[in-house]
Amino acid sequence: MSADETTHAAPGTGPGDEAGRAPASVVDAAAAAAQEPSSATAVEARGELAEIEPVVGVSKPDAILVADDVVRRFGGMTACDVDHLEVQRGAITALIGPNGAGKTTFFNLLTGFDTPQSGTWSFEGRSLQGKSGARVAKAGMVRTFQLTKALSRLTVLQNMLLAAPDNPGERFWLSWLPFTWRAHEMAATEKAMEILARFKLADKAPDYAGSLSGGQRKLLEMARALMTDPTMIMLDEPMAGVNPVLVQSLLGHVQALRDEGMTVLFVEHDMHAVRHISDWVVVMAEGRIVAEGPPASVMRDQAVVDAYLGAHHDTDLGDDSLLDPEILARLEAEEEKR
């Protein structure tokens, strides 16, 4: 991890000011300040999910993504073995689990960056099995990466413009005829600047992407994904390596995506952020889905606690009391005695 990804910002500073250091509780304060869904679609999605029985593989009222029997093995190890999963349209679904649970592998399979041994999945009723990452993105399902993929030697604005679809200037012969693509380029640039302004990166537009901090690169990835006007956005650990103050901004952006009608599926390890912004939580362990349901019930599920902390714990993973150093010390002492 680079130094800029572990830097903490002082309270009250902007995304680019990371000179000071903020307490870890800022992260949890940001999560606790998360807003209730504001759009009609988001409110309806949360209401429908509240009436569903929280069991693995349960059907959703309006599933936008459906996966069946998705298996990926590496040699003799099964990294992913998902029997059935449905993702509700218009909701924020969190995919959680300990390291090595298979979350990113599952992401890679669904988005065309890896190939499974078996399985089928569909997006908005259309099969995406065997489709490339580019075809999946064109269908409206766009992802970001745990390790950001910004092109360091291009400017922030150029990184954004790369994601703009259907530019006629990308065709070899038309590229020699500026009048065929100039209007599209101007429109794409205007759209890119509007999105960068929303993510407080407009002043960074002429800077090389390699000069951004780790948190700013996370914002750039999310902003670049929006250039394609996705129906569903998949975020792989968007808060990982980000200073605590910037987490508040990221959480707000994730919620804003849902409130604008997008479906969000994200991988995250911060249980407090997951608890406060998610409408539904799916838990993976050893490649399989072991639980799913509303955040409050999943955090108390014994199978989930065992997956994170081992057996013989009765802890609510999303309980804010876990932030108490005395509670953390007690749990660590219990684990050492086992």
TrEMBL record:
Alphabetical keyword list: ATP-binding, Nucleotide-binding, Transport
SUPFAM superfamilies noted in UniProt: P-loop containing nucleoside triphosphate hydrolases
Record's keyword annotation contains Repressor: no
Keyword Transit peptide attributed: no
CDD domains per UniProt: ABC_Mj1267_LivG_branched
ABC transporter domain residues: 65-311
Region (Disordered): 1-39
Stretches with biased composition (Low complexity): 21-39
Protein name, per record: ABC transporter domain-containing protein
